[in-house]
């Protein structure tokens, strides 16, 4: 195989906070919104580079100003699946236009925390954290003071600790490597006397004493469990649900999440665990000739978006992509037949030119097996495309982002995206003419499901030939022209991308186009 793969160079190292992050924080200050990054400040810098999440606590009374600033700085609201959605917490994504990186912002109006699958506590400490905030000189972002952050860190871990974890089952739970790394980082920066004072006022003398003692040695599961016992008298008043109801709800949520994963494993589908778009999902169709980098780009876009957004990736061709179970036996027969003939003859038999010549020949019943095979092949391809188009429609209606490599069309015949039996429309046999009309009608039905965004990857035949050396230049010229000819309804956005550019620039332009459509 002489196909060349497009490979992106290693991404340039980013050392400064992304502009979309610094602009948000600057605008919040300008509008008088009091905010602070209230947890995990040990890796705040990674958050400003788009490598992990940002957790911003804001004054709830400034909610309208915050919403306006987020919209003006390019942040878009996303919705978590029900098992991971909590009142008082909103999720936003933003695209850094210069680098193409996504930024995920957890916006907190309340300090909602607790056990996995429930978060059944609300700590009434928002005003205290915001009043004690300080400016981080490295990032220019207001952060929570280390004394208060450590109190919140250990309290969060204590309230997250489930009975199965106190008994040594279910893994480390909240006391994982991240917890100990953050604990050590905070312990090096806090003032012990202030820690004792703040903890005494918030949680009581006994809890404060136990917390200060943890500075001498990182807490283990038993120490955190004892700390939970010390703070129970205070935190029980902050429960959202009574103990029995909290357990019931948490188990129900966990059971739904586990059953969804099990069903996904059995059915071969992917469970919805990331964010969906409350404005409605989008179908993005990629069109491009051989060598334009469709597979490379769609794979990169899938990896880029699925960091936080639920993505469905579909292939509408019938070449090297996934094959449905119905088409697999036909694919095997085709491969067996192709191996018995030379490469050149095999390619000619499947070209529109060959089919046009075949159409003029006198019908022969000896060709019936080949005719039946082509009908079955076309039927299996139509069924496969209809099934995938149904998945695309369902994903869009559920708020997901659907990435399509190719897309069904009924404008250009004889290609992988369009009808394959059009050369039978004037065949002497009436039943073959009927088959051709049936196939065309099916493609027109599929074409009616228009994508929200069409990205055409335009490549010159010369560049295409360098990347796809097993296809003739004449064939590439015609395929390049086909991409230009295929049209979509006006309601579909169209992005024209020069695929002759380096892959990094192509991906940046594609990301910007998709972001505008979300």
Summary keywords:
alpha/beta; 14 strands; five-stranded parallel sheet; five-stranded mixed sheet
Describe the 3D structure.
- This protein has 518 residues and is of the alpha/beta class.
- The protein is built from 20 helices and 14 strands.
- The strands form four sheets. Strands 1-2-5-4-3 form a five-stranded mixed beta sheet. It has a five-stranded parallel beta sheet with strand order 11-12-10-13-14, sandwiched between helices. A two-stranded antiparallel ribbon has the order 6-7.
- A hairpin with a 7-residue loop joins strand 6 and strand 7.
- The longest helix has 30 residues.
- The chain is elongated, with a radius of gyration of 29 Å.
- The two termini are 37 Å apart.
- 33% of the residues are buried.
Write the layout of secondary structure elements.
Elements: H1 19-30, E1 35-37, H2 44-48, E2 54-58, H3 63-72, E3 76-78, E4 89-95, E5 102-108, E6 111-113, E7 121-123, H4 126-131, E8 134-136, E9 141-143, H5 146-160, H6 163-166, H7 177-187, H8 192-203, H9 205-213, H10 221-235, H11 243-267, E10 282-288, H12 294-305, E11 311-315, H13 328-339, H14 343-349, H15 352-360, H16 368-397, E12 401-405, H17 430-447, E13 453-458, H18 461-467, H19 473-485, E14 493-498, H20 503-517
Parallel strand pairs: 2-5, 10-12, 10-13, 11-12, 13-14
Antiparallel strand pairs: 1-2, 3-4, 4-5, 6-7, 8-9
Helix pairs in contact: 5-7, 5-8, 5-10, 8-9, 9-10, 16-17, 18-19
Terminal CA distance reads: 37 Å
Content of β-strand: 5-15%
Flag low-confidence runs: 1-5, 342-360
Question: Radius of gyration in whole Å, from Cα?
Answer: 29 Å
Assembly classification: single chain
SS-based structural class? Answer: alpha/beta
Instruction: Sketch the major β-sheet.
Output: 5 strands, mixed
Q: How many runs of DSSP E, i.e. beta strands?
A: 14
Strand order of the largest sheet: 1-2-5-4-3
**Average predicted confidence as pLDDT:** 86
The number of distinct helices, counting runs of at least 4 residues, comes to 20
Fraction of residues in H or I helices: 40-55%
Quick one: overall form? elongated
């Amino acid at each position: 195989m002489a196909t060349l793969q497009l490979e992106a160079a290693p991404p340039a190292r980013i050392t400064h906070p992304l502009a979309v992050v610094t602009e948000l924080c600057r605008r919040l200050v300008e509008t008088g919104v009091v905010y602070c990054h209230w947890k995990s400040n040990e890796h705040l810098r990674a958050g400003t580079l788009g490598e992990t999440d940002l957790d911003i606590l804001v004054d709830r009374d400034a909610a309208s100003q915050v919403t306006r600033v987020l919209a003006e700085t390019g942040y878009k609201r996303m919705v978590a699946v029900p098992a991971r959605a909590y009142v008082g917490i909103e999720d936003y994504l933003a695209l850094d236009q210069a680098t193409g990186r996504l930024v995920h912002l957890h916006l907190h109006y309340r300090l909602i925390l607790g056990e996995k699958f429930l978060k059944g506590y609300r700590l009434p400490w928002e005003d205290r954290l915001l009043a004690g905030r300080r400016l981080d000189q490295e990032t220019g972002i207001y952060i929570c003071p280390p004394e208060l952050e450590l109190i919140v860190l250990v309290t969060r871990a204590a309230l997250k600790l489930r009975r199965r974890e106190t008994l040594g089952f279910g893994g480390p739970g909240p006391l994982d490597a991240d917890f100990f790394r953050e604990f050590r980082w905070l312990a090096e920066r806090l003032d012990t006397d202030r820690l004792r004072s703040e903890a005494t006022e918030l949680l009581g003398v006994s809890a404060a004493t136990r917390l200060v003692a943890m500075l001498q040695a990182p807490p283990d599961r038993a120490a955190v469990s004892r700390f939970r016992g010390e703070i129970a008298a205070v935190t029980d008043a902050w429960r959202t649900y009574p103990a029995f109801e909290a357990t019931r709800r948490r188990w129900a949520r966990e059971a739904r999440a586990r059953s969804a994963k099990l069903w996904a494993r059995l059915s071969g589908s992917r469970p919805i665990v990331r964010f969906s778009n409350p404005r409605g999902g989008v179908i993005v169709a990629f069109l491009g000739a051989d060598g334009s980098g469709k597979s490379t780009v769609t794979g990169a876009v899938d990896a880029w978006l699925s960091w936080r957004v639920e993505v469905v990736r579909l292939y509408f061709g019938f070449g090297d992509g996934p094959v449905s179970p119905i088409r697999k036996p036909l694919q095997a027969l085709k491969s067996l037949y192709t191996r018995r003939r030379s490469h050149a003859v095999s390619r000619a038999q499947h070209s529109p030119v060959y089919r046009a010549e075949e159409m003029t020949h006198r019908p022969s019943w000896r060709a019936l097996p080949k005719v039946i095979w082509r009908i079955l092949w076309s039927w299996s391809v139509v069924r496969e495309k209809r099934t995938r188009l149904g998945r695309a429609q369902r994903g869009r209606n559920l708020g997901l982002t659907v990435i399509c490599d190719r897309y069904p069309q009924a404008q250009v015949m004889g290609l992988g995206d369009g009808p394959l039996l059009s050369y039978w429309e004037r065949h002497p046999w009436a039943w073959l003419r009927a088959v051709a009309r049936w196939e065309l009608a099916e493609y027109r039905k599929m074409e009616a499901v228009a994508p929200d965004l069409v990205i055409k990857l335009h490549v010159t035949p010369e560049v295409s030939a360098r990347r796809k050396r097993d296809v003739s230049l004449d064939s590439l010229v015609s395929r390049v022209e086909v991409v230009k000819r295929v049209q979509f309804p006006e309601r579909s956005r169209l992005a024209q991308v020069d695929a002759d550019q380096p892959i990094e620039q192509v991906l940046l332009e594609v990301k910007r186009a998709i972001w505008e459509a979300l």
